[in-house]
Every structure is written in C-alpha cells, then in structure tokens.
C-alpha cells in the first residue's frame, strides 16, 4: 500500500486545536512584554505627578538638577542646574536622586578623607 494514500485519508485536525498554539503565544507575549511595560508606565506617571519643589532629579538626557518651580497646567517644570535654570517637560524627568546616590559632601556637608 502506498503511504501517500494513507496520509491523504487522515482526518483533518479542525476546530480550536489549530488555534491553541496561537492563543498560547499571544498569552505569553502579553504576560512577559505588554503587562510589565504598562506597569512601568503607570509607575512613571505616578512618580511625575508627585514631584515637589526642591526634589533633586535626573532628566532622560542625564542632566542632574533641583526642581525650582512646577506648572501642572502646562506640564512643565523649572530645573536649576549650577545656577542656571531650564524649562523642561515633566515627561523628560527620569528619576529622583535619593540620599544613597548623592556624593558624601552633599549629604553630610563635610567630605570624609
């Protein structure tokens, strides 16, 4: 008997069984890529909405400075850097500098030897 005839007579796998691998791939993509990105975006939005005057921040371009003025209506802030001031968008703020990232002379006022 010819094997080709046997293969041609085999029943088709129809219905949902054909779509299960596709559904599984979409679920894995959502769990590992889309969900964490949405969570990170939500945290960044919350952080930017809680900015206050006097906070030391870093912009996305790497500029370190202190927030001098906030304008929530137009979504911008004034950042002071070494005596100069920049008007930048809130979305350009990357992170806040906490005490652990500051150099020792800025934390305690005196430099340790």
Automatic annotation (TrEMBL):
NAD found in the keyword field: no
Entry-linked SMART domains: YajC
Membrane-spanning parts: 15-34
Location(s), subcellular: Cell membrane
One record GO biological process: protein transport
Membrane topology: Single-pass membrane protein
InterPro entries listed in its UniProt record: Preprotein_translocase_YajC
A Pfam short name: YajC
The entry's keywords: Cell membrane, Membrane, Protein transport, Translocation, Transmembrane, Transmembrane helix, Transport
GO cellular component, one term: plasma membrane
Principal location class: membrane
Family the UniProt entry places it in: Belongs to the YajC family.
UniProt protein name: Sec translocon accessory complex subunit YajC
Species of origin: Phaeocystidibacter marisrubri
């Amino acid at each position: 008997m010819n094997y080709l005839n046997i293969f041609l007579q085999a029943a088709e796998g129809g219905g949902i069984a054909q779509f299960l691998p596709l559904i599984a791939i979409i679920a894995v993509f959502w769990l590992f890529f889309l969900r964490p990105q949405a969570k990170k975006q939500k945290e960044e939005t919350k952080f930017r909405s809680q900015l206050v005057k006097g906070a030391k921040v870093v912009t996305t371009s790497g500029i370190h400075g202190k927030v001098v003025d906030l304008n929530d209506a137009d979504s911008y802030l004034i950042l002071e850097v070494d005596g100069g001031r920049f008007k930048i968008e809130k979305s350009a703020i990357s992170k806040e500098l906490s005490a652990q990232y500051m150099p020792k002379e800025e934390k305690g006022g005196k430099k340790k030897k």
